[in-house]
């Protein structure tokens, strides 16, 4: 209550302050052009977005809130503390309300600094002309573009940075996403393994393994503001891909996988009619620090602010932030209807079921046969729960389950087909074929959209197509026993590859060429997707990795299947039809030359590469866009 006396005194002695803007209007909208704050902001929540000594500076509390109200959120708090966190908080407590912007800026300048906490790193297993690329002509290999490691100062003084540092180099997604991210890394690893960059891959897996040992799970990102939520638990998938490629089994990885699964079993389970399933349910129930203003407004305009903020955080944990999947009545006009933690999603349960298979196989390798039997039983139980809870025999697909309504969400999402990736589920392929044909999702030239019907402005909805969804749908189709779905997998691979290619070399509209985080499914023109809280980002880790894996997958497939049917859409490479897919824009990665044979989809083009100036190590990451704090 230290501010009350100051507030009363200000009305008596400084009447000109009364003319300053009020910090909050009657709808709970934060005005970011304040020059004076009269009192602390009331934020009705009690579970922060992070824990530890830095949490009251970077994840909740008056420093963060005031920075947003003054419009200084991009500068304060800064990248690094100048003094220990406890001393920063002591100094802030000496500031009084009403608080002038000049006084707050002086405090920020005195206690924080803007520094580079990442540095470019040379990957020791990076090869400018790896052998596998000799079979993909006219290419450049640029994984190193977004290879990063934490600076030595971060590793020596982790208590002074709002980061979770790791020892080994890693690959950042690109754009505003400037540290490691959890589920992005699965598709990055897929591409690294195609590139035979085993040392880099092993280092990344070791990084995640160490995080599990420290935290008990893998956080959303290396930024502490995102560390109380996870993301789709693909860590065992990463390990299994590496093991398949190298025949390497590591006992400490086995222990880390088990520890992570225990976290999900303890903290992310729900009961549905006698079956145990998994859902995204974070503990934090406060506005996100990275989008405080938008979250605050949404929450304060609802009847349950902390519940809304918890569901927003849970949606971020899903990776689908945001989508109609998480809204009441699938209505995205009002984000305050979000209730992610009350929805049981198909894809999360498929991922964890596959994790149990991987754990069983790892246990077999180490001759822990009793443990392997336990994991196979868990797989069987979860598989049964998936089928009983999500399957709609009339529709012919699996659908998310809404706990409050006890109903399935019958809208189309690519995840509706993901259970085909599980052993034993291929017997439903014929029904899924009918569903996919009737859904309308196969009617788009650039790939499978993230949702249908098209009634949303969120980025994980129509018309956007995302590499993770496209890759998993293709894997689902390939795992079926249905020739139509297998052919559709090849067609979808061709469509997405062409879309990415055109996004580089034939950019649409005023946006320059690049490899995007998401695309418009309505054409193969390569137009980037839109919607969401920020402008579309270019880079992009999972797009590069997924495309490279698709090209390599279907390159091998051609030798096995090219004589089976002339109707199969062929995306493989041959001598007569070749095109190059090269990622050379502000990011790291891409490799590739592609051929799309069917109907002359892509004509051979000679493209000028961008200037060598993009190689500059000064281009660490893209700057945050001006709209990052908007909804």
How would you describe the overall organization of this protein?
Its EC number is 3.2.1.28. One of its GO terms (biological process) is trehalose catabolic process. It catalyses: alpha,alpha-trehalose + H2O = alpha-D-glucose + beta-D-glucose. One of its GO terms (molecular function) is alpha,alpha-trehalase activity. The protein has helices at residues 2-13, 55-58, 62-69, 85-93, 101-111, 152-156, 184-194, 198-215, 235-246, 251-267, 292-300, 305-318, 346-365, 369-390, 429-439, 467-478, 483-505, 541-561, and strands at residues 36-37, 80-81, 99-100, 112-113, 118-120, 147-150, 170-171, 269-272, 275-278, 343-344, 391-392, 397-398, 401-402, 407-408, 464-466, 518-520, 579-580, 593-594. It has 631 residues and is mostly helical. The chain has 18 helices and 18 strands. Mean pLDDT is 84; it is low at 1-26, 136-141 and 561-631. The chain has a domain at 36-113. The longest helix is centred in the C-terminal third of the chain and has 23 residues, at 483-505.
Question: Which terms would index this structure?
Answer:
mainly alpha, globular, disordered N terminus, 3-stranded antiparallel sheet, 18 helices
Secondary-structure topology with pairs:
Elements lengths: L1 H12 L22 E2 L17 H4 L3 H8 L10 E2 L3 H9 L5 E2 H11 E2 L4 E3 L26 E4 L1 H5 L13 E2 L12 H11 L3 H18 L19 H12 L4 H17 L1 E4 L2 E4 L13 H9 L4 H14 L24 E2 L1 H20 L3 H22 E2 L4 E2 L2 E2 L4 E2 L20 H11 L24 E3 H12 L4 H23 L12 E3 L20 H21 L17 E2 L12 E2 L37
Antiparallel strand pairs: 1-3, 2-4, 5-6, 6-7, 8-9, 10-13, 11-12, 13-14, 15-16, 17-18
Helix pairs in contact: 7-8, 7-9, 7-18, 8-9, 8-10, 10-13, 11-12, 13-14, 16-17, 16-18, 17-18
């Amino acid at each position: 209550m230290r501010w009350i006396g100051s507030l009363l005194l200000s009305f008596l002695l400084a009447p000109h302050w009364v003319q300053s803007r009020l910090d909050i209007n009657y709808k709970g909208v934060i005005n970011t052009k304040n020059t004076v704050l009269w009192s602390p902001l009331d934020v009705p929540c009690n579970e922060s977005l992070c824990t530890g000594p830095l949490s009251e500076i970077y994840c909740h509390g008056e420093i963060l809130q005031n920075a947003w109200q003054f419009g200084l959120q991009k500068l304060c708090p800064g990248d690094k503390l100048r003094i220990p966190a406890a001393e920063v908080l002591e100094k802030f407590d000496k500031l009084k309300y009403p608080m002038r912007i000049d006084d707050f800026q002086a405090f920020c300048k005195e206690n924080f600094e803007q520094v580079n906490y990442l540095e470019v790193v040379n990957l020791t297993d990076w090869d400018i002309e790896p052998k596998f690329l000799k079979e993909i002509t006219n290419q450049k290999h640029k994984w190193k573009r977004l290879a990063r490691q934490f600076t030595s100062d971060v590793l020596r003084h982790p208590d002074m940075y709002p980061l979770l540092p790791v020892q080994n180099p890693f690959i950042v997604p690109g754009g505003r996403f400037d540290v490691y991210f959890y589920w992005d890394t699965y598709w990055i690893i897929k591409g690294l393994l195609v590139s035979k960059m085993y040392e880099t891959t092993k280092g990344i897996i070791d990084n995640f393994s160490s995080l599990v040992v420290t935290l008990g799970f893998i956080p959303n990102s290396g930024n502490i503001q995102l560390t109380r939520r996870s993301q789709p638990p693909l860590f065992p998938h990463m390990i299994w891909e590496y093991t398949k490629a190298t025949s390497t089994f590591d006992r400490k990885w086995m222990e880390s996988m088990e520890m992570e699964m225990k976290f999900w079993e303890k903290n992310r389970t729900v009961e549905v009619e006698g079956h145990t399933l998994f859902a995204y349910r974070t503990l934090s129930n406060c506005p996100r620090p990275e989008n405080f203003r938008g979250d605050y407004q949404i929450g304060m305009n609802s009847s349950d602010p902390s519940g809304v903020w918890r569901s927003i955080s849970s949606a971020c944990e899903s990776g689908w932030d945001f989508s109609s999947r998480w809204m009441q009545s699938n209505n995205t006009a009002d984000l305050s209807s979000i209730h992610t933690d009350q929805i049981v999603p198909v894809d999360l349960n498929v991922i964890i079921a596959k994790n149990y298979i991987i754990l069983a196989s790892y246990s077999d390798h180490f001759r822990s046969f009793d443990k392997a039997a336990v994991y196979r039983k868990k797989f069987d139980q979860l598989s049964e729960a998936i089928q009983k809870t999500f399957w709609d025999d009339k529709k012919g697909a699996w659908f998310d389950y809404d706990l409050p309504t006890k109903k399935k969400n019958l809208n189309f999402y690519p995840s509706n087909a993901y259970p085909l990736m599980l052993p034993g589920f291929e017997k439903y392929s014929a029904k899924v074929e009918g569903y996919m044909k009737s859904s309308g999702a196969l009617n788009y030239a650039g790939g499978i959209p993230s949702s249908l019907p098209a009634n949303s402005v969120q980025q994980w909805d129509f018309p956007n197509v995302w590499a993770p969804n496209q890759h998993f749908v293709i894997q689902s189709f390939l795992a079926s026993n249905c020739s139509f779905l297998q052919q559709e997998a090849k067609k979808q691979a061709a469509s997405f590859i062409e879309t990415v290619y055109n996004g580089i070399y034939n950019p649409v509209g005023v946006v320059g060429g690049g490899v995007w985080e998401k695309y418009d499914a309505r054409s193969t023109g390569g137009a980037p997707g839109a919607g969401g809280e920020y402008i579309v980002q270019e880079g992009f880790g999972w797009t590069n990795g997924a495309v490279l894996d698709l090209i390599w997958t279907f390159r091998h497939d051609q030798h096995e299947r090219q004589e089976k049917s002339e109707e199969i859409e062929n995306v493989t490479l041959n001598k007569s039809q070749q095109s190059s897919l090269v990622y050379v824009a502000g990011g790291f990665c891409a490799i590739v030359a592609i051929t799309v044979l069917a109907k002359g989809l892509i004509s051979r083009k000679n493209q000028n590469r961008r200037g060598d100036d993009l190689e500059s190590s000064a281009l660490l990451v893209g700057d945050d866009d001006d709209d990052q704090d908007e909804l």
